[in-house]
Amino acid sequence: MNTGATLIIGAGLLGTSIGLALSKKGHPVFIDDNSASAKALAVDYGAGQSFTGQIEPELVVVCVPPDQTAAVVASALSRFQSAVVTDVASVKSKVLAELSQLGVSKARFVGSHPMAGRERGGAISGRSDLFISRPWVLTPTDETDPRAVSKVTWLAQQLGAALVISNPENHDRAVALVSHVPQVVSSLLAARLIESADEDVALAGGGLRDTTRIAASDPELWLQILSQNSREIVPILKEFDRELDSLIMALEHLSSPGSLANISNVLRAGNLGVEKIPGKHGTKHTQYDRVVVIIEDKPGELGRLFVEVGSLGVNIEELQLEHSPSAQVGLVELYVMPQSVSTLAEGLLARGWRIAE
């Protein structure tokens, strides 16, 4: 009997977050996991009911580690003969290749990948709002039944995600650049801190925190991701290596002709690259103007700032918060549309706020 229920296999961060979001909207959700404790924790958090085989799901969402994904998808397709099955693995081509090797019909399967996550994993880190406004990529193939695409589209919409349709190869190429290589670079940089002096690290500001934040991610998970998408990652890292060698050479020989121009070109190319990163509603981050507010490190100050920005009729497009370890203040960077800068800055100054920039 088809109940319209969703079965989530895997009670980690993504599985629990999907369950929380669907359950919050009143949809019937069941959770299964090889780990009884992880499953129980996700159920206790409200991500769904414990799955004991008593229902025939309409949708199965596989949220297991990448090296297990294909096998679990194949099992779900075989066990639930009418269900649509999707997965949330970070690499799509590998899953399809393994399903083909297993001789599985992929008509009821559509690969998907929510571009959302946190540095901490597990059910304990699950959040019902994790996917809101985040891209959710669907990678159907010529074999995919349109019904499967419709069902997984429904899932992404229920979670508030921004739907993107791609193919497996294009997806893997894109995530290598925007997700997998950043993880490698962040980890390499953070590793330089291991043998550093404590007094040196004490000087760290927002730049180091920004570029090493994702280095706190789960090494075992990322080992699988990088291994599965190495074909797309390696060319980017080789180009990165070539440009880094050129930059090192220029810094070592500053008096040589062209060295300063080489360094300048690297920095300017970085500016151009940042301009391509979309912000809110696809607007380029560099199209906003910035007002930096100095805020005291005490309860209620950030909330008070937001209330007063709202009372000025100004909408915050983007936000960054930086806290100095050596001072009892923070810097709140408010990004707004250019026509709102004067209203915001003058209004906050009139209300007693200190403006740094």
TrEMBL record:
Task: Provide the species name.
Answer: Candidatus Rhodoluna planktonica
GO function terms (MF aspect):
NAD+ binding; prephenate dehydrogenase (NAD+) activity; prephenate dehydrogenase (NADP+) activity
- Which UniProt key words apply to this protein? Amino-acid biosynthesis, Aromatic amino acid biosynthesis, NAD, Oxidoreductase, Tyrosine biosynthesis
Record domain Prephenate/arogenate dehydrogenase: where: 4-285
Q: Which PANTHER family match?
A: PREPHENATE DEHYDROGENASE, PREPHENATE DEHYDROGENASE [NADP(+)]
Question: SUPFAM superfamilies, alphabetically?
Answer: 6-phosphogluconate dehydrogenase C-terminal domain-like, NAD(P)-binding Rossmann-fold domains
Q: Which domain of life is it from?
A: Bacteria
Per the record, the pathway is:
Amino-acid biosynthesis; L-tyrosine biosynthesis; (4-hydroxyphenyl)pyruvate from prephenate (NAD(+) route): step 1/1
Q: Which reaction does it catalyse?
A: prephenate + NAD(+) = 3-(4-hydroxyphenyl)pyruvate + CO2 + NADH
Which stretches make up the ACT domain? Answer: 290-357
Q: What is this protein called?
A: Prephenate dehydrogenase
* Presence of keyword DNA damage: no
Name the protein family: Belongs to the prephenate/arogenate dehydrogenase family.
